[in-house]
Amino acid sequence: MNPIYPKPMNPQFNSTFLFFISLLSIMFFAGSCTNKSGKSLDKDIKKNAEIDSTIALPKEKLEPPLVINYKIDSLKTSVELDSFKNRYSEAHLKVIYALNRIEARKVGKGKNLIVPDTLFEDIFNYSPFPKNLELICDIPKTVLISQRIQGFALYENGALVKWGPVSSGKQSTPTPNGLHYGNYKAKRKISTVNKEWILPYYFNFMNFEGVGVHQYALPGYPASHACVRLYMDDANYIYDWADQWELTSNGRDIIKKGTPFMVFGTYDYKSEVPWLQLAIDRLNNNLIDEEMNTLKDYVAKYNEYIKSIKPNDLEKDLSLEEGTIVTYN
Hints:
Blueprint lengths: L10 H22 L8 H15 L14 E6 L2 H10 L2 H10 L11 E6 L24 E6 L4 E6 L2 E7 L12 E4 L3 E7 L6 E9 L4 E5 L12 E3 L1 H10 L4 E2 L6 E3 L3 E5 L24 H20 L17 E2 L2
Parallel strand pairs: 3-13, 7-14, 9-10
Antiparallel strand pairs: 1-2, 3-4, 4-5, 6-13, 7-8, 8-9, 11-12
């Protein structure tokens, strides 16, 4: 008798059966894959993915502070003077002259100039004034004028928007320190000292004394008759930027004062110009504690003034017309 063997399964049926068995196994084990806390594995995977994605976030790059050092360039001879002028671009020369509070035409043989080791085409990078001054963050616009370092700074709510060189009053006619306010302005003024002196972009901040800021030659030291001299571009900027006072219709009374002009610091007329000290100490021209305390006093006085203004007056527009007024330079 021949042995009986089981009939072989249909190949198509065999494949289908194996696939079905495999699928059931996968579903069974997937359903039973839980951690000890009873949470499903896919939740853990999702949680881990979230953690991993948090860890993978790129870290914010912190830019190192810009460090600029200075040296003194002595232009003893005509050859050294010519070499100096040919060494730098026009834009870089403009920055160097501004750092030395001087006009290009005033730079001659025998002059010592402070020169930064890193040159930009914008003087903003060399500001001795802080980029942010929290002390005046509640004041919409502020003009700071430092007599010690012969520089001005413009702030909007405590953020520095511009700075530049000045030439304030000489020793016999110093610029008065104090909290002043922008009064009137005129594009063209005539000096009372010499009627040939034309003062472009004049902005008065001491009415009866005739003291204000305006364009005039910067020789590299305090030289004015009490006013504050500026480069033409800077005078034009302040002329457009600062606010004037507001007057009654008859022009006799002040309804609202203009932008505060805070003049502070003491210039040492007997020592060398302070910006040359940057070669020894690059932070030498920064605000010092005594000056910060003076500014705090000015801000306190300003706040007292603001409290005294009637609420309706804060919204009124300027009413003073521009004109040509005789004043000092």
